[in-house]
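WARN no homologs supplied; continuing
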Amino acid sequence: MNKTLDRYHRRILVTGATGYIGGRLVPRLLAAGFPVRCLVRDARKIASRQWASDPQVQIIAGNVADQKTVATALAGCTAAYYLIHSMESAGAVYRERDRQLASTFATAAAQSRVKRIIYLGGLGETGPTLSEHLASRREVESALAAGGLPVTVLRAAMIVGSGSASFEILRYLVERLPVMITPRWVSTECQPIAVRNVLHYLVACLDEPETLGRTLDIGGPEVATYREMMQIMAEELGLRKRRVIPVPVLTPRLSSLWIHLVTPISHRIARPLAEGLKNRVVCRDDEAARRMPQDLLTIREAIKAALGRIRGRDVETIWSDAGPIAGDPDWAGGKVFVDKRRIEVNAAPRAVFRAVTRIGGERGYYAADWLWHIRGWMDKLIGGPGLRRGRRDPDKLAYGDALDFWRVTRVIQNRSVELRAEMKLPGEALLTFEIESLNAVHDRCVLTQTARFKPKGLLGLAYWYAVVPLHGIVFAGMLRGIRQAAESFAPDGEVLGTV
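OK structure emitted
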């Protein structure tokens, strides 16, 4: 039996398929000839991915905390990727939750016909000085192994790729700060690895029997300090050399707050990353590279490739893809403020939809962008995401996408878009756009924009009344901008000129 035919009969389970690595791993497994089953919390989050409609893909919606759901997902699979971990720091609570999830998964896997589990962990020296973030990864490794099945653990340091959290931190710090006051960890050695090289190892280990039950360090061909990587990033961005001033007083907490203000990464995600940077993360040997050979990208090559993807608007996944989407708020049983506005547009619904789905990110909000930026900075200062998360694709929106400080919670082609606010608010907020054709030939329509806010307490009431006067500038201006953009498009929604 040839290798391709053999793979066809080896279905692979991927958990974390909505995340940064999982979302890139699935299409590469398919390209290698493996049928794939994805266990996800919400199937809508991957429905827009091109590979989701592949006949070799099965999608099961369910919670990894439910052992029966996991057992159903594992049925008939020969191997399983466990790509689940908390990206936020909350001490022992998150560590215990990660450990319990891994234990539940391992128990279910041991009762199935799965032959192996594959886990992507973190590099780092062992011992009491290991950061809490990396120590949690070790606990997950142990919990997976406790089920009795062979576990292949691939330990990586910083993953360099368009959209990865660590890469975005590095890029934004270098872009925005010609002079940086940093913690002492800028002198810590690291062995970063390009995301494409990580994906190669994840796929290749399926056909390498010597990786069964092994823990392997994976890294690129170079070891460098974070300070050196900052200078490489500056050169690739076409910027002058950055001045880096290490000081001993910046704790991980202060570092994470600084990262939060300067980059799109929230302090809850930045803190475990900042804590992990204090550990030297260098491969102990080159066994993985010898057993699964490939062309390993240098740090400069990996950064260049990632920036090329960003400039070419070809980012497969981003760090903000992962994470749960809260259920619909309970709009009943309490006061809900509504700001509804309508405007007629001399354009087809497709053109209006195209204009709506281009809001946010680098293009802004069609009007009063200075007010949006002020609101974004205010949000960052109190711990919210601000505007700097941007968006994965400048033209298209999909369910679950992050859009600045919004989350896309509904997209119906040429009909509607719904955004839920993830900014810090004394209440819950939704912004929806509804498109309705006005005639039989569909060359005129009406766009309805509705902002809903359910306040929490007196602070929520005060907030609503404080921002209402600005709605006439922000929301009315945005509607007019969308109309202007839509009417400048061709009837099919394609762009005729610069908007």
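The chain is about 35% helix and 20% strand.
OK
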